[in-house]
Amino acid sequence: MSRPTIVLTKHTVLAWSFITVALLTILSFLLFRSVPPCSDSKQYIGRKAYGGWMICPLGLNPSSIVYSIGIGLNAEFDQEMIQKFQLKKLYAFDPTPKAIAYVERAKSSNQLSSKFELYPYAVVADPEQTTAKFFLPKNEDHVSGTAMKGISHVQKEPLIVKTLDVPRIMKMLGHDHIDLLKIDIEGSEFELFDSLLSNPEQFTYCNQVLVEQHSRFFPNQPHLLKRMIDQFRHNGFQLLHVERDEEYTFVRITPPNLQQQ
Fold first, then answer.
1. Which residue from 11, 15, 113, 229 has the fewest beta carbons nearer than 10 Å?
2. Could you tell me if 77 and 52 are in contact, meaning their C-beta atoms sit under 8 angstroms apart?
3. Residue 51 half-sphere exposure toward CB, CA atoms < 13 A
4. d(CA 10, CA 117)
5. What's the total number of domains in the chain?
6. Residue 152 confidence (pLDDT)
7. Is 183 helix (H, G, I), strand (E, B) or coil?
8. Residue 48 phi, psi dihedral angles, 5° rounding
9. CA pair distance 208, 189, nearest whole angstrom
10. Half-sphere exposure of 114 toward its Cβ, with a 13 Å CA cutoff?
11. What's 223's domain CATH number?
């Protein structure tokens, strides 16, 4: 008995090619934990006047991994994130003495959840750096310090603080991804994202980034903000929201290797 002959027409090949590409695209989204655009679902968490952030709530749940880098004297955003999504833990990072004391007081008075965990590290770009000079503000009523040199409003004499980069933090905590990364590090964000976003294939572990940008600290470098936005776009992120031209919310919409350059 002769075997049936399978004839592949041009239309059949095109159809199978389309199906293959579609399946690979869906698989890539699953592998990279991609978050869909959520312009209609975005929500403000915390006080809009101070310390709050616009987020994409899609995909967030009790098991979500949330990093909050830079706390100051306001953990309302973090507290509301814990309550709203019933987070098992929220991981915060800030080496500022006033911030550390604030968290200790808030926890001892039950004003801050036990699920809020503070690590007294400055987050840096250098994967081998273990300490940094950390400059506190000249105005004693202010709180936030910075690892950036040459900023006019900080003291000349620095503290020496412990440092970690994001991959080392993830390794220390046993995490393989970050669902939401909030960063407010007083001007160091540009150097940090230059490192994190320089290789799109390596920054596939994060779905959503909230960053307060401080380009006003660098009046002679107007390109910094545009470069950061372009870096996020090339890494598969969409700019979801901007508040007061300072607080930027980026949400991953495609795996970086599928993003059009």
1. 11
2. yes
3. 16
4. 59
5. 1
6. 52
7. strand
8. -70, -30
9. 15
10. 1
11. 3.40.50.150
pLDDT score for 157: 72
Lowest mean pLDDT among 84-88, 139-143, 162-166: 139-143
| More confidently predicted of 84 and 159 | 84
Residues 6+ apart with CB under 8 A from 182: 53, 66, 67, 68, 69, 70, 77, 209, 210, 211
The closest of 50, 148, 134 to 97, measured between CA atoms, is 134
pLDDT at 127 over 60: yes
77 found inside a domain = yes
The pTM score is 0.80
78: which DSSP letter?
H
The strands making up 208-212's β-sheet, listed across from edge to edge, are: 116-119, 90-93, 66-69, 180-183, 208-212, 247-252, 237-243
Q: What are phi and psi of 12, to 5 degrees?
A: -65, -45
135 found inside a domain: no
Looking from the CA of 225 toward its CB, the CA atoms found within 13 Å total 17
Question: What pLDDT score was predicted for residue 82?
Answer: 98
Side-chain-side CA neighbours of 183 within 13 Å: the count stands at: 28
Assess if residue 144 is contained within a domain.
no
Given a contact cutoff of 8 angstroms between Cβ atoms, the answer to whether 195 and 167 are in contact is no
Least reliable range by pLDDT among 1-10, 14-23, 118-127, 226-235: 14-23
Predicted pLDDT at 104 = 96
Residue 79 clears pLDDT 90, i.e. is over it = yes
Q: Largest alpha-carbon pair distance within the chain? A: 93
Q: Are strands 66-69 and 90-93 parallel, antiparallel or unpaired?
A: parallel
User: What range defines the domain where residue 234 resides?
Assistant: 10-129+163-258
Instruction: Output the pLDDT for position 69.
Output: 96
Q: Look up residue 165 and give its amino acid.
A: D
232 occurs within a structural domain: yes
